[in-house]
Amino acid sequence: MELAGQNPDIISARELGVVACTRCSRVWKRGTNTCGRCGHAIVSRDEKSLQRVWALWLVGLLCYVPANLYPMLQTRTLLSVQEDTIVGGAIELMHHGAVGIALIILIASVVIPIGKFLAIAFLALSVSRRSTASNHQRQILYEVVEYIGRWSMIDIFVVAIMSSLVQLNTLAAVNPGRASLFFALSVIFTMLSAQAFDSRMIWDVQSGDEGARV
Amino acid sequence: MSDTPQTVQIVPARASFFSRFSIVWVIPLLALAIALGVAWQSYNDRGPVIEIVFENGAGIAERETDLRYRDISVGVVEDVEFTDDLSAVVVSVRLDKTVAPYVDATSTFWVVRPELTTRGISGLDTVLSGVYIEGSWDNEIGAEQTRFKGLSDTPLFRSDQDGLQIALRTTPGGSLTDNSPILFRGIEVGRVGKAAISREGNFAIAEAVIFEEHTNLITPRTRFWDASGFTFSVGASGAEIDFSSFATLVSGGITFDTFVSGGGRVQDGSVFEVYADKAAARNSIFNASEVETIELRVVFDDNISGLAVDAPVELSGLKIGKVESVAGIIDPDEFGDSRVRLNAVLSIQPARLGLPDEVTPEAALAFLSTRVGEGLRARLASASLLTGGLKIELVQVDNAPAAVLLIDEDIVPLLPTTDSEVSDASATFEGVFGRINNLPIEELLNSAIEFLDSAEAFISDEDLRETPQDVRALLGDVRQIVTSEDVRNIPIALNATITRFETLMAQLEEQELANRLAAAVDAAAEAAKGVSASVEGVPALVTQIEAVAAKAESLPVEELAMQLTELVKSADGILATEAARQLPADLGAALQEINATLAELRAGGAVTNINATLDSTRKAADAVATSTQDLPALVDRMRAVLDQANATIAGYNKGEVLSREAQSALRDISKAADAMASLARMLERNPSALIRGR
C-alpha cells in the first residue's frame, strides 16, 4: 500500500455517495438518517464537531493554567510542609540529581499536554484551511493524540498512589494538591476534545477542490 | 476560494442562534464563570495587610509564619523585608478579614520563641513548628492602623488580659529584681516586668501586674519587699538560713503583705515601694514619710574606739538617726584644754520622732531643744557586745547639769552629753575570750599530736611488727624441743626405767620373799609348837618373829612404787607443759612430731618393749598377787600360832610380862600382815597403778 496523502486516487465515502454508521459500520446510501441495523443516527459529517472540539479544548486549556500554578503535591513531614508545583517539583528533582525522573515528569506533565493542545488545535484548524500536511499525516497525528491522551493521567495516578501510601500520621504525609484536580480535568477535557473531532473531515479539505460540500 | 457561494447559501438557512452553536459551549462558559467566581471570592475574603516592624526577623518565614491571637492563627506573613535604612525588619502580615477591624492602635505584637528561663520553659511548641507572631488587642474596634512596632519580648500587660497594673519603685538606696514573680504566701499572684532606671538615676522602677483574681489583695497600705536571695543570721536560737523558695533564690521575687486593714482598692498605675526586707516594710507603715534630716553634733570627752559612721542613734531604743561622721577635735577655746575629743555629727530623721503635728526639721529641733532642757543627753553605749561597736543613745538624765541646745542657722547644734555607758560586758567578754585564749589548747593539741605520733611510731615500730615472728620462732623452738633427741629419748629412758623395774620385780619374785616369809612363819609356827612344848622358849621366839616381821615391814616396796610414780608424773608433766598447750597451731605439728616419734618408737620396738615391760609388770604383780594369796593362809597360820600362843599363855597363866610382850609382838606382826594385805589388794585391784602411780 502506498503512503497515504501521496495517492491522489483516494476517494472518500462521501464522494461515493454512501455513509457509514459510526457505531456498527454498516454502509448506507447517503441521505439515510438512521441506521437500519443499530438505530444510530447517521450523519455524513458532524457539522458541530469543530465547535465541540474548540469548546472542550478551551476548558482543558483553562484547567491547565491552575494545574501549573497550584501545588500538585503537598509533602508534610514532622518539621515542615512542602508544596510543589509540577514544574517546580521537576526542577527540584533535577537539582537533587534525579534528571531522569525529572525528564519523565516534564514529558508526561508538560510536553505531552501542551503537544496535545497544539495537535488538536492544528487538526481543528487544518480542516477549515488548507494545510501543508498531507491527509495521511494528519490522520496519524489524530490517532496518536487519541491514543496518548489517556497516558497523561499517569501524573494523577502517581499522586493518588503516593497520597494513599504515604500516610504516617504525624511523621510524614503526602496529600494531593489543588493542581491535581485541575490537571485531571484538563486531561479529561482534552481527551473529550480529541474525541469530539470528526476525523472524516480531514479528508474533505484535501478533496475540497473536487466539490467536497456537495 | 469557492466557499463564498456556499456561505451565502447557508447563513439564511441557519438563522437560529442556538441551532448554529453547539450546546457544548456551555461548558467553557461555566468553567469561566466558576473561575471568575472563585477569584472574586478569594479576593473578597482577603483581609488587609498590616506591617509590623521588628528589630530582627529571626525565624520568621514568608507564607509560613502565623499571626496568632489567643493561639489561633488569624493571619500569615506575606512578606519580610528591610526598612529603607536597613535598621529593622518589616513583616507584612495578611490578616483574616474577621479580626482585621479589631487590630487597631492598641494592638501589640511580639515573636514567640522557645525560651528557657529560671521560671520555666515557654514556647516549646515553636521548636518544631517554628516561631509565630503573637498579637494582642482588645475587643473594641478602634482607629485603623496598618503599621505597628513589634515588641522584642513578651509584654507583661496584654490588652486582652485583666489584672491590676501597678509600678514598683525602689526605696532610696534599695534595689529591685526585675522579670520576677510577685509571690503571696508562696503563690505567684503577679509579675514584675522589666525595670528601668529613672532619669535622675536615684531609683529604679518596674511595671508589675497583679493577676485579676488576686487584685483584692492589694490596698494602698500594702507593702512590698524583696524576697529574693537568702538571709543568714546567727542568733540566740542558733544559726538560721532563710529563703522563701528555690525559685526566688535563683531568679528573685517580690512578696507583699497588708499589715493593716482598710484602704480600699488600688487604681491602675499606682506606685508602690519595694523595701529591702519584711521588717523594713512593716516599719514603713508606721513611719510618716521621711523628710529632710536634721544634723546634731555631739562631743564626747572620752575617745572611745568603736563608734563608726552609720552607727545608730537611738531614742528610748528606737532608731531615729545615724552617725554621719566621726572625727577628733581639739578646741582649747571651747573645752579649756587641748585634749583630743570625739566629735560626732548625727543626722536625725524627724519622721521617726513621732511628732504629733506636722513633721518638719524645725519642729524636730524645737522638740529636741525642749527635751534637752528637761535633761535629755547623749551618751555612748554598746551596740553590740560581740563586735564592741558603739551607738549613741539619747537618754533622760535626772538632775543633769543645765544645758541648752543651741539652735542657729549657721552652726550645727551641739547636743550635751553625759557619762558613757559602755557596757562592761564587753570587757567581760573580752576577759572570757582572753581566758579561752589562754587555755593551753595548743599545748593540749600538741600533746595529743605528740601522743598520736608516739602511738603511731610505736605501732609502726619494727619490733612490734616482729612480735608475731617471735611467737612463731618460739613455736619453732618448742617444736624443736619436742622433736629434740632428749624428749624423744624420754620414752627410751622410761623404757629403761621400766625394764629396770621389771628386773627389780623379777628379783623380788626370785627372792621368793613370800615363800621365805611363809617358811619363816612356818618356822615360827614350828617354833610356836616348840613354845607350846617349852614355855621358856617363847619370848625368844617372839623376838625372832618380831624381827622377821620388822624386816618384812621395812622392805621398801612402797617407796619404790612412789618413786616410779613421780618419775612417770614428771614425764607426764613435760608432755603437758603450758607452752605445748597454749600454742595450738604448732601443737598440731608438735603432736605430729610426737606421733611421728611414737611411730618411730613403735617402729623401733619401744612399744613392744613397753608391752613387754607391762607384761613383766603384770607378771610381777601376778606373782605378788599369788604370793599375797598365800598371805591369808600365812595370816591364818599366824593367827593359829597366836591362838596357840594365846592358849599356851592362858594355859600357863604365869609371866604376865611375857604375855604382854608377846601380845605386842603379835600386834606388830598383825600390822605387818595388814600392810602386806593392803599392798596386795592395791596391786590386785589395779596392777597398772604400779606404773602410772595412781
From TrEMBL, chain A:
- A Pfam family this protein belongs to? PqiA
Record's subcellular location? Cell inner membrane
- Keyword annotations from UniProtKB, A to Z: Cell inner membrane, Cell membrane, Membrane, Transmembrane, Transmembrane helix
In Swiss-Prot or TrEMBL terms, this protein is called: Paraquat-inducible protein A
Instruction: List the PANTHER family hit by this protein, alphabetically.
Output: INTERMEMBRANE TRANSPORT PROTEIN PQIA, INTERMEMBRANE TRANSPORT PROTEIN PQIB-RELATED
Domain of life the protein comes from: Bacteria
- Membrane-spanning residues where? 54-73, 93-126, 147-167, 179-197
Q: Which GO CC annotations does the UniProt entry carry? A: plasma membrane
From TrEMBL, chain B:
Q: What Pfam families does the database record attribute to this sequence?
A: MlaD
Q: Where in the cell is it found?
A: Cell inner membrane
Location (main, coarse):
membrane
| Residue ranges occupied by any Mce/MlaD domain in the UniProt entry | 47-133, 163-237, 298-395
Keyword Transmembrane helix (UniProt): yes
Give the highest taxon in the source lineage.
Bacteria
Arranged from A to Z, the UniProt key words for this protein are: Cell inner membrane, Cell membrane, Membrane, Transmembrane, Transmembrane helix
* GO CC aspect terms: plasma membrane
Q: Where are the transmembrane segments?
A: 21-40
Q: What is this protein called?
A: Paraquat-inducible protein B
* Annotated source species: Roseovarius aestuarii
Phylogenetic classification of the source organism: Bacteria, Pseudomonadati, Pseudomonadota, Alphaproteobacteria, Rhodobacterales
Gene assigned in the entry: pqiB
